[in-house]
ABC transporter (Nitzschia inconspicua), 502 residues
Amino acid sequence: MAFSAILKQSMGWFDDQDHTIGELKTILGADAESTMRLTGWQCGYRVRVFSSICTGIIISLIFSWKIGLTALACFPLIMVASVVQACLLRRKYVAESEGLTPPTILEQGLRGITSVQAYNLEPKVSDDYDDALGPESKSKIKQGAIAGLVYGFTQGVVFLSFGIVFYVGTHLLVEVQINFLQFFTALLSIMFGAIGASQVSANFSAQQEGWASVARLLSVMEGPEDDPDDTRSTASTIVDLQGDVSFEHGQFSYPTRPDNMIFYPSPSNNNDGLNLSVKAKESLGLVGRSGSGKSTVLQMVLRFYKLTSGSCNLDGGNNIQNLNIKWLRQQIGYVGQMPTLFTGTVRENIMLGKPEATEEEIATAAKAAHAHGFISFLSNGYETDICTGGGNLSGGQTQRIAIARAIIRNPKIMVLDEATAALDNESEEKVQAALASLQEKHPRTTLVVAHRLLTVKNCTIIAFLGDGGVLEIGTFDELVCKKGDFYKLWKMQGAEDELKAH
């Protein structure tokens, strides 16, 4: 349930430093295990101890009601001590759960092992990990000291209660109100019950750790979902979607950086935010300097993020925020800058775009992505197993399989975020030619983000983003003739010489 809840969170939720991969692994791993212990054998253990205490008191009441009542009178003292212990330990465990940095550092070090070794960063990463463990180690020592003191206090209350019961019992025995059999039976019954109570106290640390884990799991499971199941089922769809995409007066900042506006009204540029549109079956190229919001536009079309104000619409006035999110994403083929391949075969990864795809459709999509050739040379062809994250494939091969996965869906809207950046020039040319051919045969709205300006040369329209909105818009030739920001960036890349070479 916790993992399912995490998968439904928005991208902004994952941007939060409290929700890094390392932190989430801790929650889904150690915390889930601790919670299972709490609801598993510990639950049965608590029932057994409670039964032992009740049985001991009942037997003592049967053999000597005065001794039994004395034990019951001492019970509130034990409860108060137990509650104090629970509060102190729970507060300690909850405080300890904040800022679990070691898993994050460990994750970064292992994921970036090539950079760590290339720059001889092993000592630094190791020291950072040790430094991150330092506060946690001190916290554990302090926690152990507090737990020991509180446990000693609770045990002291238990033995004090036992002493009171023993004193009352001996007084009754001296006055011959009970005999030895009644005295020792009642006393031993209470003693075994007290031992049970002390066992509960001794197990408090594990219980409080479990409750702290439950709190962390609930904080994930009860967090606001990006699109709850009830919304997914009741939100609207568009009958016969054409593929028009438009932004009107869009303003946006990332949830974790609310003061850093990406799209905003700019008097110097005479705009009131992001105003941009592309007609159905046409292609829009998005270019601009780093941080201008190129990839952000694509992410908002996919509803990874939503505009702070303004709207993103499909086919005129259909605000995507009012659309069924599952349906919306089924209409879009997406290839990101760093596509992910999942554990399984090449065939299974391509079929993620269309689970019911035929062999012919798979091969056609692979050929369109210029992937069929290298796939055929793999050890088992399309049945070749892919390591986690595509570790046994090159970056370019991974990218082409991801493109095939998007193509096979035959979407109304294709979203390409630096989709050919990892390819060499020859492969990029072939993939671009294949995509262009596919566009002619099956026209669809295409949004392309590219660093290399020649990648978007054949787009119907190109938008140069910056200064909170669109700085320049037009065809490739029109933007070059303007000799504005697009032209400057084009010359900076040396695109003119490259264009002549073609």
Summary: The longest helix spans residues 122-174. The chain has a mean pLDDT of 80.
